[in-house]
Amino acid sequence: MPWIKILHIATLLCWCAALLYLPALLLASARTREGTDFEVPAPTLLRFFFTHVATPFALLAIMSGTLLFIVGQLTGGWLVLKLAAVSGMVLCHVLCGALIVRLERGRRRFLTPASGVIVVLAASLMLAVLVLVLSKPFD
């Protein structure tokens, strides 16, 4: 069981980092650049990071957490709240994907405030997960 915990914590850290980095990449990509000869198109880089880095880490974190839940036979009210917070993080992940699609289509309107909301919401949910896991308040 310790290797499942290690896998879960490692993949969760990588997913959380990617979830905080994606809105920053969106903000940087939303700015129009002029006069640069050498650059990778931002939507291409964003889509690559989303599909090949952030999403696999998200899936691994969720699968290892589910395995940890099943093998460890974890129960308690804190777990329900933690799963609700993780569901919110998944929603933030999906919203980042939707914003990437909007950026690819050239619709930059509301991209900046939406990215800001995603960062604040994701960071709050990550903090909630951390507090719930460490304190297990309704055990």
From TrEMBL:
Q: How does it sit in the membrane?
A: Multi-pass membrane protein
Among Pfam families, the record links this protein to:
UPF0093
| Catalysed conversion reaction | protoporphyrinogen IX + 3 A = protoporphyrin IX + 3 AH2
Which GO terms fall under biological process for this protein? Answer: protoporphyrinogen IX biosynthetic process
The primary location reported for this protein is membrane
Q: How is the cofactor bound?
A: Binds 1 heme b (iron(II)-protoporphyrin IX) group per subunit.
This entry carries the following GO cellular component terms, namely: plasma membrane
For this UniProt entry, the molecular function terms from Gene Ontology, in alphabetical order, are: metal ion binding; protoporphyrinogen oxidase activity
Q: Which domain of life is it from?
A: Bacteria
Keywords attached to this entry: Cell membrane, Heme, Iron, Membrane, Metal-binding, Oxidoreductase, Transmembrane, Transmembrane helix
- Under which pathway is this protein filed? Porphyrin-containing compound metabolism; protoporphyrin-IX biosynthesis; protoporphyrin-IX from protoporphyrinogen-IX: step 1/1
The catalytic activity of this protein is classed by the Enzyme Commission as 1.3.99.-
Quote the InterPro entries the UniProt record gives.
HemJ-like
Q: Which cofactor does it need?
A: heme b
Kindly list the places in or outside the cell where this protein is found, as annotated in its UniProt entry. Answer: Cell membrane
Q: Where are the transmembrane segments?
A: 6-28, 49-72, 78-101, 113-134
Q: Which family does it belong to?
A: Belongs to the HemJ family.
- What is the role of the protein in this entry? Catalyzes the oxidation of protoporphyrinogen IX to protoporphyrin IX.
Recorded protein name is Protoporphyrinogen IX oxidase
